[in-house]
C-alpha cells in the first residue's frame, strides 16, 4: 500500500515512527512537505503536485499539520479527499478541532464534560466575564495559543483583570475558564485511534507550573483510565469527527472534563510513557480502511 505522511519535517519523532511502522508492515511510505505542494483544482482530474511531479496512486494519507499551517495544510488534505484518497483525519475534522471555541461549543452541544468557560473579544464588562466562570482563580487563554503558550493562571480578580486588559489591548480573542484546582497541575492524554483509546498517560507539570505540557517541562507516566474517562475521550474524538486524536482531560470533582482535542498529537511522550506502539496502531487502522475503500460513514475499527 502507498501511504503519504504530510509533514514539514521528516526528522521529527512522530514522522519517523510512522515511517518505520509503515515500512515494517510492508507499505510504501513517503513523507511529503505539504507546504511545498500545489494543487490543480478541477472537476475533470484534480491533482496535487510536489517538486514538479504529480502525486498519484496513493491509497492513504496521514496528515501531520502544524497548528500555524492549518489553513494551507487542510487545503492539501481536502484536495487528496477530492481525489478519493483515504485520510487518517479529514480536513473538516482537523479545522474543527483547531478552532478552540468551535471545539468547545461542539463538545458542549454533545453534553461532554467541560470546564466552565467564558469567551470574549474586547469586552469592557470584565467583572461580568469573570462572574460567568465563577470568579478567580481563572485560567485565561489566547484562542490561537498552542503547547501552553498564551495560557495564564490568574489567582486573583485583580490579576485576571490585568491580564484580560492586556490581551484586550492586543485585540485578541480570549477564553476564560474555571481553574480545576484538584487536578494539581496534571492532566490525562488519551490517544484515540478508530474509536478506541489505545494508550494513555498522565502528564504532571513541573514544580510551580500549572501547565502540564511536556514542552513546558512536564513529566509523563502510564496511567489507568476509569471507564468514564475512557468514554469521555472516545465521545470527544467522535464529536470532532477525528479518527486519530489526542484528547486531554482533567480529573475534576465533578468528573472528567475535556481541555483540548488534538488532531496531530505527538507520539514520543505517549509511546515512551505507555509502552504502546502507537505508530503501529495508526498504520494498521489507516491501511485497513484504505484497503477496504472506507468512506466517512463506513469506517472499520
Automatic annotation (TrEMBL):
Top enzyme category: ligase
Q: Tell me which positions the record assigns to the signal sequence.
A: none
Binding positions for Mn(2+) 2 per the UniProt entry: 260, 262
Q: Which GO terms describe its molecular function?
A: ATP binding; metal ion binding; ribosomal S6-glutamic acid ligase activity
Superkingdom assignment: Bacteria
Keyword Manganese on this protein?
Answer: yes
InterPro entries linked to this entry: ATP-grasp (IPR011761), ATP-grasp_RimK-type (IPR013651), ATP_grasp_subdomain_1 (IPR013815), RimK (IPR023533), Rimk_N (IPR041107), Rp_bS6_RimK/Lys_biosynth_LsyX (IPR004666)
PROSITE patterns associated with the record: ATP_GRASP (PS50975)
Gene Ontology cellular component list: cytoplasm
Q: What is this protein called?
A: Probable alpha-L-glutamate ligase
Q: What is the organism field in this record?
A: Gloeothece citriformis (strain PCC 7424)
Gene transcribed to yield this protein: rimK
Amino acid at each position: 500500500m502507498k501511504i503519504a505522511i504530510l509533514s514539514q519535517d521528516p526528522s521529527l519523532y512522530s514522522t519517523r515512527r510512522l515511517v518505520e511502522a509503515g515500512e515494517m508492515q510492508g507499505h510504501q511510505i513517503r513523507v511529503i512537505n505539504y507546504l511545498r505542494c500545489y494543487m490543480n483544482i478541477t472537476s475533470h482530474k484534480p491533482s496535487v503536485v510536489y517538486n514538479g511531479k504529480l502525486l498519484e496512486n496513493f491509497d492513504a494519507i496521514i496528515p501531520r499539520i502544524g497548528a500555524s499551517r492549518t489553513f494551507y495544510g487542510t487545503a492539501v488534505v481536502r484536495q487528496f479527499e477530492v481525489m478519493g484518497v483515504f485520510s487518517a483525519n479529514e480536513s473538516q475534522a482537523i479545522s474543527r478541532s483547531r478552532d478552540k471555541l468551535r471545539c468547545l461549543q461542539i463538545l458542549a452541544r454533545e453534553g461532554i464534560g467541560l470546564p466552565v468557560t467564558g469567551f470574549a473579544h474586547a469586552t469592557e464588562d470584565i467583572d461580568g466575564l469573570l462572574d460567568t466562570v465563577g470568579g478567580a482563580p481563572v485560567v485565561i487563554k489566547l484562542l490561537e495559543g498552542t503547547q501552553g503558550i498564551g495560557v495564564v493562571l490568574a489567582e486573583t480578580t485583580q490579576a485576571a483583570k490585568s491580564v484580560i486588559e492586556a490581551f484586550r489591548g492586543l485585540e485578541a480573542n480570549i477564553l476564560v475558564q474555571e481553574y480545576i484546582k484538584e487536578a494539581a497541575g496534571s492532566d490525562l492524554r488519551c490517544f484515540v485511534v478508530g474509536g478506541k483509546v489505545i494508550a494513555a498517560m498522565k502528564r504532571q507539570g513541573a514544580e510551580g507550573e500549572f501547565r502540564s505540557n511536556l514542552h513546558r517541562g512536564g513529566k509523563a507516566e502510564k496511567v489507568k483510565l476509569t471507564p468514564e474517562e475512557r468514554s469521555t475521550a472516545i465521545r470527544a474524538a467522535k464529536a470532532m469527527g477525528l479518527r486519530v486524536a489526542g484528547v486531554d482531560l482533567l480529573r475534576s470533582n465533578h468528573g472528567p472534563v475535556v481541555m483540548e482535542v488534538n488532531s496531530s498529537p505527538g507520539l514520543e511522550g505517549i509511546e515512551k510513557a505507555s509502552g504502546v506502539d502507537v505508530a503501529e496502531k495508526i498504520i494498521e487502522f489507516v491501511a485497513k480502511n484504505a484497503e477496504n475503500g472506507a468512506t466517512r460513514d463506513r469506517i472499520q475499527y
